[in-house]
Amino acid sequence: MGQAIASLAEDRYFDLEPGQKEIALELYQQVRDLPLVCPHGHVDPRMFSDPDYDFGTPVDLLIIPDHYVYRMLYSHGIALEKLGIPRLDDAVVERDHRKIWQIFAENFYLFWGTPTGIWLNEELRLVFGVESELNGEEAQDIYDQIAEKLTQPEFRPRKMFETFNIEVLCTTDAASDSLAHHQKIGESGWTGRILPTFRPDAVVNHIHKPGWRESIQALSAASDIDVQDYGGYIRALENRRAYFKQMGARATDHAALAAYTEALSSREVDRIFQRALQGEATEADAVRFTGHMLIEMARMSCEDGLVMQLHVGSERDHNLVHWQRFGPNTGADIPVTSEFTHNLQPLLEEFGRNSALTLILFTLDESTYARELAPLAGFYPALRVGPPWWFHDSFNGMRRYFDRMMETAGIYNTVGFNDDTRAFPSIPARHDLWRRASANWVAGLVARSIVTIQDAEAMVKDLAYGLAKRAYNLD
Amino acid sequence: MGQAIASLAEDRYFDLEPGQKEIALELYQQVRDLPLVCPHGHVDPRMFSDPDYDFGTPVDLLIIPDHYVYRMLYSHGIALEKLGIPRLDDAVVERDHRKIWQIFAENFYLFWGTPTGIWLNEELRLVFGVESELNGEEAQDIYDQIAEKLTQPEFRPRKMFETFNIEVLCTTDAASDSLAHHQKIGESGWTGRILPTFRPDAVVNHIHKPGWRESIQALSAASDIDVQDYGGYIRALENRRAYFKQMGARATDHAALAAYTEALSSREVDRIFQRALQGEATEADAVRFTGHMLIEMARMSCEDGLVMQLHVGSERDHNLVHWQRFGPNTGADIPVTSEFTHNLQPLLEEFGRNSALTLILFTLDESTYARELAPLAGFYPALRVGPPWWFHDSFNGMRRYFDRMMETAGIYNTVGFNDDTRAFPSIPARHDLWRRASANWVAGLVARSIVTIQDAEAMVKDLAYGLAKRAYNLD
Amino acid sequence: MGQAIASLAEDRYFDLEPGQKEIALELYQQVRDLPLVCPHGHVDPRMFSDPDYDFGTPVDLLIIPDHYVYRMLYSHGIALEKLGIPRLDDAVVERDHRKIWQIFAENFYLFWGTPTGIWLNEELRLVFGVESELNGEEAQDIYDQIAEKLTQPEFRPRKMFETFNIEVLCTTDAASDSLAHHQKIGESGWTGRILPTFRPDAVVNHIHKPGWRESIQALSAASDIDVQDYGGYIRALENRRAYFKQMGARATDHAALAAYTEALSSREVDRIFQRALQGEATEADAVRFTGHMLIEMARMSCEDGLVMQLHVGSERDHNLVHWQRFGPNTGADIPVTSEFTHNLQPLLEEFGRNSALTLILFTLDESTYARELAPLAGFYPALRVGPPWWFHDSFNGMRRYFDRMMETAGIYNTVGFNDDTRAFPSIPARHDLWRRASANWVAGLVARSIVTIQDAEAMVKDLAYGLAKRAYNLD
What we know:
Chain A has 475 residues and is of the alpha/beta class. Helices cover 49% and strands 8% of the residues of chain A. Chain A has two domains: 55-152, uronate isomerase, domain 2, chain A; 157-471, Alpha-Beta Barrel (TIM Barrel), CATH 3.20.20.
């Protein structure tokens, strides 16, 4: 990329009409330096429990852990082995990180116009001070620059956390997790706020698969409650939620293929649970059980006050051979059509009118924004809508979200931004993109006389900071 | 809201590029003062049959009857009882309308950027002459101003109808309605045109529910035909259609969860009808019967010339407890995915090629605009597409509609605007928003050299006035 | 239409902000005159095998073969018989082409704002030199001008092919086609490249219908392999693919209602095939067989290198009476909801990771762009996404495509443009619209500092020319 990008123009990404752009810039400048609130994401807490945590090479940091990056290279026929992505069978993969970096740099044009391209460009420039273009010619020079930075104390995670001005960062942790790293952080004297999030997917979903019973054993061990029946299971979950809450958790997180909910009778759920324990549950049992447990989790949230997040619509591990070779979370998750109006009805019948619950919905199916999510959130006190997620976490994705969600939901039924990333150094770029996108959208409302500049200032501050903080009780 | 909104800038809502905006303004000014044609809505005819009809307090006028308003307040945890919304069980609700108004005003920020916010702001300023911002501080002052206006003769509905420059307003009336208010209006000497619309949903849908048999009795009584079998039912419907037509009706209106149609054999339909009369119909019967009756209604429209409107895709009364407490049409209707291509095929097979039929389709699923509705309307002579409906009746909703519908359907397979409202004083603001949105869209075509300014002038006039008038035979 | 259109402003269709427009124009000018690469379409090869091919009257050229045109007129109640569209029963239709042209001209306003309106306007002006507006008054004059041109040698197809600067044009041909016209073109000494495309739909789809067995006989005859079982069928298909390839084919093309794929066991597929031969296959058999054959075709593509195109989501012949009267491809095909994530999984499980395959997906359901197609193409090496198709081949359709597809797929998982038309003289206008739309989109990226002007130049060239050429191996 050339000069315009290198300079990272202060008015980048904004709409072009000068009047609107001026307002956008003014609004953006009011929120640009606000602390980052990160209520949902997948950063590894280990980074912060070890004060000397070392990111490794530029490839260890920027390529190998980031499926956004390597899936695009793979889609053009570059074998993942050549990018150093570890295989589950321990087959040999490329270990020369300079070679990997060279391939990445030579193919960086694949990212033109993509959010990954934007984030990487901003990271290289703003975090690592790179000034030249990433391409085949400059590749090794840039590698050297980053590698050199990574040896400096300023590039330890705790220090970067502070430099990034992160006010709080929530991780995502299994129900049976000991939260040892969170504990260690808490005891270390370091003041960065790293909070856990309770994610019980492993014990709630796929009860017909062998992995579930292993997860139940882990749950038994973690809770010190021997899970032999549904009652014990519920007690164990409540025990773990209490522990997470005590460790600072503000929220739970749930992933499901569909938003399907169903209130099972206690007799039905007991039987299904027994079948699962005996390895005899069917796929249909699993779907109904997950649907039941989402309602049960809403009940628990009403009681313990943990915010409930529901991420719906990703068909995980779309390709079996790929999954066998590289495992989950390696770029092969593909969205599907989602439905909320019918699916959530049982849950909302029971808890939707209850303000003690905050249920935040995330979708990968944008056709649900204006059709289902905004109308639902614009009625039910318990409902809020999360920001554009995953493939839609992009400037256009945000623009479509503002366009289709806000007229019916209003911004106060939404919860600001979360970065949802495992790529720690991309966090500032991601929040900055959201702050620009929201300032740009609100500026359009001002310029078209839909809101006043005074109201607009309140709106951008809430979108950048206040909404996330309040929705997740992060005060 | 602040100064820019207070002044209601003449160029409000338009796109910002100066060249396009100038064209938009010029086009808008040509249609701004055209009479309002209101071919579909839910205004109560009672307002016009009683020359002294009194709207009550500002809360009676603007909050209690408008679920667009109170659902948003409710979504933030404000109990409907506190807003004075009547409960079916006659439990006590707030009666102090000044208190209700105060809550509304303090929470008016929830409507920032929403169409309801725009309409309310315009109503307050343009209908009631309010000049200050609606917020907690100004609330009681503004209440006084509105209340004072409502005592004046200019604020009787008939007078407002004239002030609003409404050329014709169609109500929506049950098949068994006596149309007594329409009759009284007709006999009163007042020249405002208030026409009925035939809506037989109560006798066509949900034949498996107890309410249906009551509706059949009402139909028998109204038609003076004792409905004992399907033949009598059809005669009774034809009788009522004839009566509505004689009373000035131009159209029928049909609501259904899905656009499903199916031509039942006379034997099948007879049997299903008998089961329904005996209270033995199933939900599957009900779905098939509605699907059959839509075709039957298309047949009748071919014969009597009444335009047929079909509103599809709202899951009514999404929350049972809420419905038991507050009844229907209280904010809990949520859209669902819709399908037209397969569902309408049986109806279109029989009547789609027939120009004697005008079937106007309304959807809450915008993904059907470019995928199904525009291609269908761009082929079948009988089909037209209605304007953006309900949650999509907004500036962005209109923009998306123009964007996705017009390239394939052309504007002449659409039918202009209808306000579809029960909030009578919001009618001018709603039509004005459409006129601005359509002028804005057409100006974009001119500025990008897609249509000439001469053609554009014809287009905006038809979008604002001519299309609705011709589609509904309102000459 | 008036002056602005008549002059065909050089900056037509572009976004209006002057900075962006200047960049767009600059980028457009770099690609405006590049040769046209037409890798997929329905132009009749006969036009080029006969050096003296005569288009007939203006109505023969512009109306009768173009269902985009006559379906719109029909949707407003103009009988197709009055437009000279031939009936299958040989009933009399209008033969006076001047009368037909008059109707067309008087109703040309129906095309305001539509892509058909844009293409026709450009054709009339740029191909036929018409300078006045098409309307009732000018109709006969314009008819004369076009008719006069059509007598000139410059308006023979081969000459127009050269004038249009077409580098290569691929036709679409049945599996049993002898490709006699392609052969004749090849032997004629004329250097225009007209390549066949292998489209086996007639022998792959609808095995439960009588037409299938006729198609199998044609396949037997063409391949000289007597198809008596599934093995013979596969050999016959491979034989034909080899012949097509030898005749210059670069690709196959497949149409299906859904993207459903399923790997049948050889026993199952044998049985289904036998049932089909005996006229006993069911509709369910047909769906499964098509799903199986798509996988089989992917396998063959891996072997012979033919690019595989899949067009999904058109419900063909929506109205039975219309179809009986006028046959297929006469305007009554209507899109339906499509699904790719689940449906393509079996095919992608087997061949998705294989770079030897290029599978290009086309959809009529834009909701799949960002939800399914971009995420799939951004992962699987074998997948590419085709340009906006049919009803979405329009300026807004392209804008939505760029908006929703590119952030996740990147432009290099797309394949540029194809015109997909049977309306030969509309080809330059269609490519020009794409070139304008893509220059406009890329200019927006430059103006918002997302890509540099250097990268933008590469992008527009690839979008206009390089991507199509490389994806279809047209070097």
